[in-house]
């Protein structure tokens, strides 16, 4: 997915905001972050969150998380979590990895109910927590279908 | 209707890090949407996806309702030995689908 | 699966093909060109395009015997790569021994009821969309080329009349948006010219694959007019007109749209 990263890099760089304190985020997201990290320090860096800065429909938002890691027995990414700020629930997914993965990268497509912040957190085998976040603008469709 | 689609290389060199992509047909109904009669459509999602290479788990992922319909997942793994990669999706309403691919490692 | 630049190359190929389609002062644009890079990439990459789930399902159905005749599509037509190449680019058309045009889904159902002696597949059913997607996929990147059948002229005229006729509580015609105001914004969305190059299409709004008729129905409801029945002559006439209007533009099914 190297091509996608470079493709989106320019756009994503503009909106990749440093992870602020839990103060700036709604309660549920802050609670979930505390649950994920067990209250340990959460550092900005090593995690790259590729998500379009603007999407025309929040039902299908492509997203890739990649983490700088040697992925060796001594030091690897154990878990990658993606969380959000304004959906009905703050959890999006959690992926479990091992050194066998070779590269700490997961791609998927998510739903975003509204314009909001998306947060990725990586937990390493050494017990460190790294994070990145991004703002995604979800525009409203002009013509939507009635439900049947 | 056949409902899962795996994209993985058929062959790989030992030690190569290869990308595997998995798609499956599923509505991922969130449980938060009202239907035409105003009542909430019951939640119907896939909760877990996993991949095993010759029986050893190489990747697992838990989904919340915020995963898009017809879930797509891509991940990497190191090709160690030839064999079969089994994929399993499980979820609400006893959803359970398996798919597998053979990868030859040289 | 290291393929650096693969997706990007595809994007460039698509961009080049659209540029070619627009050569000579052709002002036509497809919705593909107006959507975000993220969605364009999803459409181009056949390893992640969710429409391919339906293409694969269609392949299974194509080879599966059905009906009292216990015949599969493949028993008569063989492989789609050869027998169905370009077919979706020509439909709607008037089948042999018939006097009315049918669209590709209608043609599939004629085979179902005639050759296979099976029940017709229901509009927007997974099976019909899957077969439609599989057959249409064999025409991916081919230019739309409506048949020169003179009997279609009358249907095309009816389609054009419907396209330009104001209807519904909003008193809008299709042309008010897709001819007169295409390229402008309606809320956050760019109004497309309405070329049916991507159908059957995976629409994010639907979270599934849908036919051109479903999209037309969607527009009719948006105009606050009464939707036609799926098998109506009106939708078919609109399809004939729209395919003619998009002549030469390349089939991109299964496309992606917001």
Q: What's the CATH topology label of chain B?
A: Immunoglobulin-like
Total tally of structural domains of chain A: 1
- CATH architecture label of chain B: Sandwich
Anisotropy-based shape of chain A: globular
Describe the largest sheet of chain A.
7 strands, mixed
**Mean pLDDT over all positions of chain B:** 96
The biggest sheet of chain B, with number of strands, parallel, antiparallel or mixed sense and barrel status, is: 5 strands, mixed
Topology of this structure?
The complex is a heterotrimer of chains A (148), B (106) and C (258).
Chain A: H1 2-15, E1 16-17, H2 27-37, E2 42-44, E3 47-50, E4 54-55, E5 61-67, E6 77-84, E7 91-96, E8 104-110, E9 116-124, E10 129-138
Parallel strand pairs in A: 2-10, 4-10
Antiparallel strand pairs in A: 1-10, 3-5, 5-8, 6-7, 6-9, 9-10
Chain B: E1 4-7, E2 11-12, E3 17-24, E4 46-53, E5 56-63, E6 72-78, E7 83-91, E8 95-105
Parallel strand pairs in B: 2-8
Antiparallel strand pairs in B: 1-3, 3-6, 4-5, 4-7, 7-8
Chain C: H1 6-21, H2 31-34, H3 37-44, H4 51-62, H5 73-77, H6 80-83, H7 87-90, H8 104-114, H9 126-137, H10 152-164, H11 174-178, E1 185-186, E2 189-190, E3 201-203, E4 208-210, H12 212-222, H13 233-245, E5 255-257
Parallel strand pairs in C: 3-5
Antiparallel strand pairs in C: 1-2, 3-4
Question: How would you sum up this structure, described in words?
Answer:
The complex is a heterotrimer of chains A (148), B (106) and C (258). In chain A, 17% of the residues lie in helices and 39% in strands. Chain A is built from two helices and ten strands; from the N terminus they run αβαβββββββββ. In chain A, strands 1, 2, 4, 6, 7, 9 and 10 form a seven-stranded mixed sheet that branches. Chain A is globular. Chain B is mainly beta and 106 residues long. Chain B has one domain (4-32, 40-105): Immunoglobulin-like, CATH 2.60.40. Chain B contains no helices and eight strands. Chain B has strands spanning 4-7, 11-12, 17-24, 46-53, 56-63, 72-78, 83-91, 95-105. Chain B is elongated, with a radius of gyration of 16 Å. In chain B, 39% of the residues are buried. By secondary structure, chain C is mainly alpha-helical. Chain C has two domains: 7-49 and 144-257, Cytochrome Bc1 Complex, Chain D, domain 2 (Orthogonal Bundle); 56-137, Cytochrome c-like domain (Cytochrome Bc1 Complex, Chain D, domain 2). Chains in contact: A-B, A-C, B-C. Chain A binds chain B through residues 1, 59-61, 64, 84, 87-89, 91-98, 100-103, 105-112, 147-148, and chain B through 17, 19, 21, 28, 30, 32, 35-36, 53, 56, 58-69, 71-78, 80.
């Amino acid at each position: 997915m190297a091509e996608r990263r470079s493709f989106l890099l320019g756009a994503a760089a503009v909106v990749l905001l440093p992870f602020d304190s839990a103060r700036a985020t709604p309660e549920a997201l802050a609670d979930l972050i505390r649950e994920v990290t067990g209250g340990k320090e959460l550092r900005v860096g090593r995690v790259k969150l590729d998500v379009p800065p603007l999407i025309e429909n929040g039902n299908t938002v492509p997203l890739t998380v990649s983490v700088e890691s040697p992925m060796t027995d001594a030091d690897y990414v154990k878990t990658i979590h993606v969380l959000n700020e304004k959906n009905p629930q703050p959890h999006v997914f959690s992926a479990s990895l091992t050194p066998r993965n070779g590269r700490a990268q997961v791609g998927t497509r998510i739903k975003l109910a509204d314009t909001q912040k998306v947060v990725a957190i990586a937990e390493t085998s050494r017990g460190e927590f790294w994070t990145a976040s991004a703002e995604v603008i979800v525009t409203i469709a002009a013509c939507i279908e009635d439900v049947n | 209707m056949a409902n899962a689609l795996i994209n993985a290389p058929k062959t790989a060199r030992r030690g190569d890090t290869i990308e595997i992509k998995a798609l499956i047909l599923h509505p991922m109904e969130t449980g938060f949407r009202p239907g035409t009669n105003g009542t909430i459509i019951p939640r119907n999602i896939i909760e877990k996806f996993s991949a095993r290479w010759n029986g050893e788990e190489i990747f697992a992922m838990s989904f919340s309702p915020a995963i898009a319909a017809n879930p797509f997942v891509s991940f990497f793994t190191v090709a160690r030995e030839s064999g079969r990669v089994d994929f399993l999706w499980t979820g609400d309403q006893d959803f359970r689908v398996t798919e597998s691919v053979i990868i030859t490692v040289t | 699966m290291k393929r650096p630049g693969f997706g990007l190359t595809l994007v460039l190929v698509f961009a080049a093909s659209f540029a070619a389609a627009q050569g000579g002062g052709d002002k036509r644009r497809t919705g593909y060109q107006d959507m975000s890079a993220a969605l364009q990439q999803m459409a181009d990459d056949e390893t992640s395009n969710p429409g391919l789930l339906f293409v694969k399902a269609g392949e299974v159905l194509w080879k599966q015997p059905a009906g009292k005749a216990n015949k599969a599509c493949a028993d008569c037509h063989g492989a789609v790569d050869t027998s169905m190449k370009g077919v979706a680019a020509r439909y709607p058309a008037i089948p042999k021994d018939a006097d009315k045009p049918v669209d590709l889904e209608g043609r599939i159902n004629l085979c179902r009821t005639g050759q296979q002696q099976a029940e017709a597949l229901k509009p927007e059913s997974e099976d019909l969309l899957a077969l439609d997607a599989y057959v249409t996929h064999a025409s991916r990147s081919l230019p739309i080329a409506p048949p020169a059948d003179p009997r279609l002229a009358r249907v095309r005229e009816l389609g054009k009349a419907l396209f330009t006729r104001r209807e519904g509580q909003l008193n809008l015609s299709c042309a008010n948006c897709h001819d007169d105001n295409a390229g402008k914004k309606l809320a956050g969305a760019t109004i497309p010219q309405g070329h049916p190059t991507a159908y059957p299409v995976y629409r994010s709004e639907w979270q599934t694959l849908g036919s051109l008729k479903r999209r037309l129905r969607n527009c009719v409801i948006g105009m606050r007019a009464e939707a036609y029945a799926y098998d109506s002559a009106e939708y078919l006439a609109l399809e004939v007109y729209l395919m003619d209007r998009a002549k030469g533009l390349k089939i991109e099914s299964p496309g992606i749209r917001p």
